[in-house]
Amino acid sequence: MKAMVLTGIRQMEMREWPEPMIINDTDVKIKMKRLGVCGSDVHYYTTGRIGSQVVDYPFPVGHEGAGIVTETGSKVTRVKPGDEIAIDPAMPCNNCEQCRAGRHHTCLNQKFLGCPGQADGSLSGYIVMPESSCFPLTKKLSLDHGALSEPLSIGLYALQQSIPIQGKRIGILGMGPIGMSVLLPVMMNNPASVYVTDKIDARLRMADEQGVTLTANPDKEDIEKIIQDAEPNGLDVVFECCGQQEAADNALNLLKPGGKLMIIGIPEFDRWTFSADYMRRKEICIQNVRRQLNCVQPVLDMIENSSIRPDHMVTHRFPFSKTREAFDMVADYRDGVMKAMIDFD
Description:
- It is a single chain.
- The chain is of the alpha/beta class.
- Helix content is 28%, strand content 28%.
- Helix 1 packs across helix 10 and helix 3 packs across helix 9.
- It starts with a strand and ends with a strand.
């Protein structure tokens, strides 16, 4: 089969790759149809690593996927050949201390699509996943929805890990796909106000279309002053969605005493820095978000019943053969890109 593999820093090419086979009786073989380009994929493309996870070339990345079932193991009952499915890229062991505690997203033996040393990614013709990672798409759900369910499930999980949102003052710093994935469920929960920042004006316009209170561009405006003028008592919770130290600094200044900082963005550096004095005096709570937990099906249900409408997130499309162009666009933040989608057909 064909696979698009990383071969070096900002280097990628199409190669013949071993086609995966059904091994376990709960395995599902999937023909890939859609794949969203994620910021973490781009980190591997531009730097060859995320923290301690270092690419061993050649390697196919990609994990925001949807496809069609072509074959199943003998004990699979959840899906059947011909079904269109969303794919949860996580493959927990279901046996370690974390899994037994219900924390499958921090499994000690986790395998994750497109994660170096764990599993090849889904930028290939076929993949094989456990049945538990396969979520059937109803007639109301498209393959795009299936691929988008991965980032959207992270946004929903981040919301669940924060605070009750109704009537609260919210900040979202970074309006890329994860920022939008946070914003959509936030807006469902009747916040008092929502403030969004990003360096790309096209993304801010998309946030404005969702009915947020105010948007601001930190490259053009003093976002702290603008938001503090509007909310002199501070924000209740800030979602850091871009992995930038500057945004974390903004968040601490914008939060009220007793506020909560949600760190979702993946930084390219090794250490965050925070003012110990400032954090102590304001008694700020910091919550990291690691992927998602049990949120894929709830997100699909929310899309199906129109509680959230994520179709606008897909701003650019590329054929499989032009995956590198998609990665370059996302890496360089060109043309107001929100989500670049790879179409395998």
